[in-house]
Amino acid sequence: MKDYAAIKDGFDTGYADLSETIPDTAAAFGKLIEEATRAGTLTVKTKELIAFAIAIAVRCDGCIAHHAQAVLHAGATRQEVAEMIGVAVLMGGGPSAVYGVEALRAFDAFNHQPGRG
Fold it and tell me: Distance between alpha carbon 69 and the CA centroid of its chain, in Å?
């Protein structure tokens, strides 16, 4: 089983280094994230569930780690995550089923950390 907390920590450390190297690009990407995930007609939770589904479909471990924690912070339940995984499997087939299992494990891992992720 993958250690999604370690995957997220590794990404965060690496991205901090990359951000120092290309600060303008990193700042622009940060602004995009801020704008795209801001509550509007869609709630933050809905937007994070969408992002989490896309992370599964594109098979991105770092993205799964990030969005597992983000969707938890946005208030998603395990059942909501499981249903979202069902939609990801519908769109992505067998590979999304494999990564969907991993995504649920990641959600569970962050949900059971002290301080809830």
Answer: 6
Helix, strand or coil, per DSSP, at residue 99 = helix
Q: How far apart are CA 5 and CA 76, in angstroms?
A: 18
Q: pLDDT-based confidence at 5, cuts 50/70/90?
A: very high
Burial letters 17-34, b for 16+ CB under 10 A, else e: eeeeeeeeeeeeeeeeee
Q: 4-111 adopts what CATH topology?
A: AhpD-like (1.20.1290)
The structure's pTM equals: 0.89
Give the pLDDT band of residue 40 (cuts 50, 70, 90): very high
d(CA 79, CA 30): 30
Asked whether 113 and 5 are in contact (CB, 8 A), the reply is yes
